[in-house]
């Protein structure tokens, strides 16, 4: 299958959070799309963090766009010049205070929504985690750390007893499969 050709691009806005770009594209069959909109975002990392006691570390926080409180795995966008591994270790430490002596295991790297977004999420598994630090939150973050038995989280997700988002559910089931 052939790729589309970009004829022109213009930005509607650029922010530290993300950009909105409008492209004019030519398809392989010659058809022209005058307005294809791309949301440009930084890549982000997330991790299933499991303690020595087989508890999964979740962060509970209010999400404005979802207008509710959600339980999620620790996650965040990459900072300048960070490797994915450095980024997830920093995010876990900042959001939860947890760390591990074991190297993070990369479970996968996925496009978030390649139809309209250009970023990826890189998912890790961190085992034998323990709390060593205090949280170091941004001014916009209010996060409560919650621990759940790793073995029962899947049932809570499947039966909608846990208010979460797709990336947490996906990462959990990937980690569960990896550990099996």
TrEMBL record:
Organismal lineage: Bacteria, Bacillati, Bacillota, Bacilli, Bacillales
Protein's recorded name: ADP-ribose pyrophosphatase
Gene Ontology cellular component annotations, sorted alphabetically: cytosol
Family according to the record: Belongs to the Nudix hydrolase family.
UniProt cofactor(s): Mg(2+)
GO molecular function: pyrophosphatase activity
Residue ranges annotated for the Nudix hydrolase domain, each copy included: 40-170
SUPFAM superfamilies attached to this UniProt entry: Nudix
This protein's UniProt keywords: Hydrolase
Organism per entry: Fictibacillus arsenicus
BP terms from Gene Ontology: nucleoside phosphate metabolic process; ribose phosphate metabolic process
InterPro entries: Nudix_hydrolase, NUDIX_hydrolase-like_dom_sf, NUDIX_hydrolase_CS, NUDIX_hydrolase_dom
Superkingdom, taxonomy of origin: Bacteria
Pfam families given in the database record: NUDIX (PF00293)
